[in-house]
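Annotators were shown the component list below and the corresponding predicted structure, then asked to write short factual statements about the assembly.
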Amino acid sequence: MKISLAIHAGIAGLGLAAMSAVPGNAFGQAANYGQAPNYGPPATSYALEAARYPDAASKPTPHLADGQPDLNGVWHHFFGGLVAKVGDNSFELNFGQHIPTAKAGGPPPPRAKPDPAPEYKAQFAAKVKALDANQVKEDRTLHCMPPGVPRMGPPQEIVQTAKQVVFLYADLTGNHWRVIPVNGQHSTDPELEATYNGDSVAHWDGDTLVVDVTHLTDDTWLGDNGLYHSSKLHVTERLRRVGDTIQYSMTADDPVVLAKPWTITRTLTLQPDLLTEAAPCVDNDAGHYVNSEHHDNAR
Amino acid sequence: MTNNKRLALAAAALLGAGMFAPAPLAAHHAVSAEFNADKIITLKGVVSKVDWVNPHIFVYFDVKDDSGKVTTWRLQSLPPLFFKGSGLTKEKLMDGSEATITAYPAKDGTDDFGFLLKLSYPDGHFYNLGGGTAPAPGPTK
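Structure shown to annotators:
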């Protein structure tokens, strides 16, 4: 089965489940995400969160005692609950059950704009393609290795003081965190090893927190589907609180493999939920793959 | 339902992991990279252990043969977050009741390894984790 077939099979499955398992719910709407793969994960999950709090951006922007915008809060999480109770004591997989705004009779689920794709130098395009085709083996996150920066995405929770911001992530690969000094300096240690999350420092540029990340290992990818990078990767994240939203952008500059810097943006919406600790990741599959079939992970 | 459609449902299960999840959750292999969706096995036994781990939970299922020898099957299921808030917990899966299950066997020939589709209990309740119409149980192995 080729990649495209796999994803279409998945979509067909969603639609089929809608008809056979829970007549009349909004499964079909959910399935439509897949029919336009570029509107799929992960941007759509942010749109779903925004839909829970439509006037978030028009709220007052709170500030901390030091006068800086207050970035504290949970900004992204997993809705969960795709297994649903049926009858008194039975359960079944049901994709429509817990999708906000996707209840029967409700408005259609929101759609997010697709992210632009990073532009590689021509001589490296074939390597991306090869890694993508063989991602079941090559993508280390499938084997519980951390996705690192920037693939891990915007912070899911932020804990902020005047001196530092802490970014928290509950990921399929486990729980990750970044402690980022505000007005700190990058390490000058010539022997500092590159890491998954790199060496991050932040400063305020007006009301925008700018996070500068160096020392990123080339063990990680920029994103799904073979988007590799070199050890010269330099990442800049910008976070600006607007009401109860954060306008987030991430620019990846890799002068070795990219033809030009790659920027993606997200609108994060303050969520009422607690960030739930992720279960540990255990790679039980590595020895059992017989081919490279996988999902198309639209970004 | 054809086996291909059933495979689609299982694939959809894992596709869904990315659909409503933070970005890095999206990457996933296909069920078909590991399991044979053209073959469904039926087993009778008891859940003896559940590993509540990412990227998917594993259910251990003890099957006793006619001579009394117990074989423990290791069955892959859904990502733990799929169960969040559902009420279907590790404790519930391990309540000690005898169950009949359906599963896809491993493609690589590993014995006693599969992808869990559905657990059915004598009083009629069930946990359908494969999605869609549940496959009819065949003769137990």
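Statements collected:
1. The first strand of chain A starts at residue 73 and ends at 74.
2. Chain A touches chain B through 81 residues (CB under 8 Å).
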